[in-house]
Amino acid sequence: MFGFENMKISSSDAANPVINLDQGDPTAFQEYWMSMTMKERCVVVIPGWDLMSYFSDKTNVCWFLRQDLAEAIKALHRAIGNAATEERYIVVGNGSSQLCQAALFALSSLSEDKPLSIVAAVPYYSTYEEEASYVQSQLYKWEGDARTFNKPGPYIEIVTSPNNPDGTIREPVVNRGGKVIYDFAYYWPHYTPITHRQDHDIMLFTFSKIAGHAGSRIGWALVKDIEVAKKMVQYLTINSIGVSKESQIRATVILNELTKSCRIKSESFFEYGNEKVKTRWESLRWVVDKTGDTFTLPDYPQAFCNFFGKSSSTYPAFAWLGCNEDKDLESLLKEKYVLTRGGERCGSDKKYVRVNMLGPNKDFEDFLNRLLTIKYPNCFEEIPCFEP
Amino acid sequence: MFGFENMKISSSDAANPVINLDQGDPTAFQEYWMSMTMKERCVVVIPGWDLMSYFSDKTNVCWFLRQDLAEAIKALHRAIGNAATEERYIVVGNGSSQLCQAALFALSSLSEDKPLSIVAAVPYYSTYEEEASYVQSQLYKWEGDARTFNKPGPYIEIVTSPNNPDGTIREPVVNRGGKVIYDFAYYWPHYTPITHRQDHDIMLFTFSKIAGHAGSRIGWALVKDIEVAKKMVQYLTINSIGVSKESQIRATVILNELTKSCRIKSESFFEYGNEKVKTRWESLRWVVDKTGDTFTLPDYPQAFCNFFGKSSSTYPAFAWLGCNEDKDLESLLKEKYVLTRGGERCGSDKKYVRVNMLGPNKDFEDFLNRLLTIKYPNCFEEIPCFEP
């Protein structure tokens, strides 16, 4: 949850302002859109008389989805090769959070057994627990860690790959014939090698984490079964009578630009984005190494990326930082005025935190410096600049 | 619900295309925004690098609300005099539907007794029943008609005034100390006399029904109690991580234009809108009179409108059309390829239907003609043009 209660740290001051790396605000990529090459592109102009209707296409299952957005989504997936779009319904949502809830509603409404158990392997995206619990639905029930789940009967497993918070490549773990919702928010080539084209019944994507446009609140689901798609649309219809047309127009323009940019290496967003997150990870690993055995970070295997045509590693949008001693790392970082998401919220241990890797440059640099000072209180060592 | 299954009427043809007056798509007002005076105004230009963050103002209870939208909302309410905005929290939503659900969540979460009963006086907006039922929450339970509600204990009454579907001016009917959510979607001077400034704990408004921008999915709540506002924001945070920034920017520009237009009678949207709905109502009443005692329409009292400075009647955004015989009016109209919302869905009788009064001119004219042919099958009478 985006709760700001914990931001009121009394003794932060001008020299040590609070750095919020709790939420995954992806503003790091703004510099790409402000570059000389891009600044004049992707400008959206909307006259006062446009986009007034609730409807986009009454003949489409997802009647509020603009056809041009659907085409832009399919074109980008084709260019990247990360997901199959053929013979699927596209459902647009106010971010993929709303679509995840729409999928829970759809699958449980269509199930004979209720409440349907919802699970995800630890550590999981903390918001899943909130999404599955907050309205106390009788359709489904949050059951926590998929690895220890042993209730008989139907269930839904949410699989995020690369995983939020720890960046690992994931597959379902229950494997007892239940339904699976795949969250592929981070299955894009700047974050992880595109090893194959994902091809599942329900796949979620979000505009927020591709090129950083979180403010638009656009997500989409690729759904095989028309009955599931219809039920998801029913959820979105009752919940918010569809999705902002302004955001859909803007997402269309930007997704089309991303697709185009793939053709020119020097302009490619994904080349840029990959360099950006890679260098941040190198800086973070340098600092973690420097602190000896104080902190831990996951290691990620190399894999061949079909998109880049070369082998590379995963550079997740979040760092899953741990400490080797049995400490409360979230509190430890809070003493340095750095806000992160404690591991317990992700079903894991308080010795871990989730750290947003996509914040502004200054916040990221300050975070690295404060991390160093946990080990070396009087350290003023210059952190090498890995920025490209 | 926006279900399009019922649109597949097999025998509609080019001469008799289906007219959909079921949903309240408010496209009638588009001509105002396309007029010579307005066409070049209210153009919104958004560069690719803008509006990327989830956040608008981290110090605000509603952290995703843009400050300029909050100011535009307050300025318009001040200009119209329809609602008190002082000492209130503004919560922005993806339409007022999402805000209504946020309010149900907030009030029931804060209540000791659960599930909280939800009621509305018949005939009610059919979507309330869906909103209060679809996820089968254990926090609240739809209990139907407020007039026959006699369960002891706390409850929430939803009061819509002017009412959707029948346009009546409403007050709470249970009056046993429960919570009230006021839906003032239609408390604007083109629809009804502004007799006083509404001043309640929770008041909902929607951008869709003011000047017709339904595609933007913007609504707002004026909320007195900070704890209720916080819980509503919690709902919106988990449900959709806030509200499209593009839509907020556009709503800001258009609401500011509406406020400005109040100062120049010839440009005033509310003068224009009032003429528009008034002439449509005059045409409809002419047709209903012409059909003798076949159909019924509610009568609305005159009242002094503080905004226009004169006495006037209510011209609702929906017509609550009845038939004097005990017929299924929705089916009767469907035979004429006119889709409306049957009275039973509003907790009332099938002899009534809700008819959208804000559709395109052509659809409205065709609807009137087909209504006449129910009484006079071979009638080709010219309906007088009441258009201004």
TrEMBL record, chains A, B:
UniProt keyword annotation of Transferase present: yes
Molecular function via GO: carbon-sulfur lyase activity; transaminase activity
The protein's required cofactors: pyridoxal 5'-phosphate
Coiled-coil zones: none
Database matches in InterPro entries: Alliinase_C, Alliinase_N_sf, Ethylene_sulfur-biosynth, PyrdxlP-dep_Trfase, PyrdxlP-dep_Trfase_major, PyrdxlP-dep_Trfase_small
Record keywords: Aminotransferase, Pyridoxal phosphate, Transferase
SUPFAM superfamilies hit by this protein: PLP-dependent transferases
GO biological process terms held by the UniProt record: amino acid metabolic process
Domain called Alliinase C-terminal: residue spans: 19-374
Assigned protein family: Belongs to the alliinase family.
Name of the protein in question: Alliinase C-terminal domain-containing protein
